[in-house]
Design a protein that fits this description.
CATH superfamily of the largest domain: Response regulator
CATH topology of the largest domain: Rossmann fold
Number of helices: 12
Strand content: 15-25%
Shape: elongated
Order of helices and strands: HEHEHEHEEHEHEHEHEHEHHHEEEEE
Strand order of the largest sheet: 7-6-8-9-10-13-14-15
CATH class of the largest domain: Alpha Beta
Helix content: 40-55%
Distance between the termini: 152 Å
Number of domains: 2
Structural class: alpha/beta
Number of strands: 15
């Protein structure tokens, strides 16, 4: 008998177990693949969501208006309060015009002002600038007086806070590479204009009655230098600032004019002190018998338009100088709009205030960031191409206005009321009437 091959059969429980194991393996393998793919899809989905979020943020940014703040330090009380409060209207005009221009061009940027009162005092100006800086403000329009600008200079330089003064004119503050910009010319030129005006009008022996501060001291000295070179004699007489009344000082001025036989008084003042001085001088026989000349500091003061003081101004034929830019159609439009709002002509430096706000706004836009140093650098570029209400605003290396003309002003009777009137100009060393 042949040998037969023997086949061993698995037990009845083994095959199902093998089949189950095989199926479980397929399931686990598929699950693993699914999990890997799911993880990849999840990562891709997360990346896509991040991109969507980034794009949405960009869209939101494009649709969100960026707000920049411009600080303003104005003399709302004190010796320049008359013009300081008028400047508030000018600043708001400039802000509205700037924001309207940006809105019309669909630029998602707007500006706002934070205005503080520096009280026409040096220490208060420093306090005002420090307060604005603590709010994160990097650029301040103002303060007005040179003594105030001098007081804030060290703090502004150390903290890179840009100071843009529309009215500080002392030649002693013409310093390159600092954080002081002045949108008006130095008084070195205005002192020359006033000296030549007084000499041309026949004055030869004058008393220069000046504020004992940064502005008055520098103006008086520069006036004396020019007037003396022309052949005239100037006696410099200072008076203390911040007094409530100047009756005693005016009485001393009268005595001095009489003692030296002066033929004219040259007043270097601000608005409230200047108005007070003229208010006492009108009642003094000696001071009513000589010619009077004035710097720009008192121009625009409403008190000078009162019948009592205006009559005195006409009697002594008071003439003054003030910074302007000749034949400026932009200023004509600005002045008309200001008068329609207030019923009066713009005060001294109003055009410079207006242009300072506009220049700062445009400089912030050009800088691309709210940073004092960047805004300062941009100001020089913007000003070189900006012709505003005060004229061409190009700056020199010291950050002062490079070109400045001057008007010759007085107070005249127009249709039964008194108004400030420009009757001549000074440009390039030449006086022109009319």
């Amino acid at each position: 008998m042949s040998e037969e091959t023997k086949v061993t059969k698995p037990s009845s429980g083994v095959l199902p177990r093998l089949l189950a194991a095989f199926v479980i393996g397929l399931i686990l393998g598929g699950l693993g693949t699914f999990l890997v793919q799911s993880s990849q899809y999840s990562a891709q989905l997360s990346d896509l969501q991040n991109r969507v979020n980034t794009l949405q943020a960009a869209v939101n940014a494009l649709n969100t208006t960026k707000i920049y703040t411009i600080g303003v330090s104005f003399p709302l009380t004190g010796e320049l309060s008359d013009v300081g409060n008028q400047w508030k209207t000018v600043a708001q005009m400039a802000l509205n015009d700037l924001n309207s221009e940006l809105a019309n061009e669909n630029v998602k940027v707007q500006f706002k002002l934070v205005i503080v009162d520096d009280k026409t005092q040096a220490q208060d100006a420093l306090t005002a600038v420090q307060s604005l800086a603590q709010q994160g403000i990097k650029v301040v329009v103002g303060p007005a007086a040179s003594s105030q600008v001098k007081a804030v200079k060290a703090y502004a330089d150390a903290n890179q806070i840009l100071i843009v003064s529309p009215s500080s004119t002392s030649p002693t503050l013409a310093i390159p590479n600092d954080f002081i910009i002045r949108t008006v010319g130095s008084d070195a030129v205005q002192a020359e204009a006033l000296a030549k005006l007084a000499f041309e009008q026949g004055a030869r022996n004058v008393v220069v009655f000046y504020r004992d501060d940064e502005y008055g001291q520098a103006f008086a000295q520069f006036f004396n230098n020019v007037f003396s070179s022309l052949g005239g004699k100037a006696t410099l007489t200072k008076y203390a600032t911040g007094l409530p009344d100047y009756a005693s000082e005016v009485a001393q001025l009268s005595s001095q004019v009489k003692a030296i036989g002066a033929d004219a008084v040259v007043m270097i003042s601000f608005d409230t002190d200047g108005a007070n001085i003229l208010g006492h001088a009108k009642d003094d026989p000696t001071l009513s018998s000589v010619r009077w000349f004035s710097s720009e500091g008192v121009h625009g003061t409403t008190q000078l338009l009162s019948p009592e003081i205006a009559t005195f101004i006409r009697k002594v034929n008071l003439l003054g100088t003030r910074p302007v830019f000749k034949e400026n159609p932009v200023y004509i439009d600005f002045a008309a709009r200001y008068k329609s709002l207030t019923g009066r002509d713009p005060p001294v430096f109003a055009a410079n205030v207006y242009d300072s706000i506009i220049l700062v706004g445009k400089a912030i836009l050009l800088a691309g960031k709210y940073d004092g140093a960047a805004i300062r650098a941009a100001m020089f570029k913007v000003a070189s191409n900006y012709y505003g209400a005060s004229g061409w605003c190009i700056l020199n290396s010291a950050g002062d206005r490079m070109y400045q003309d001057y008007a010759i002003w007085t107070v005249s009777s127009v249709n039964g009321t008194y108004e400030y009137q420009d009757i001549g100009s000074y440009s390039g060393g030449t006086i022109t009437w009319g």
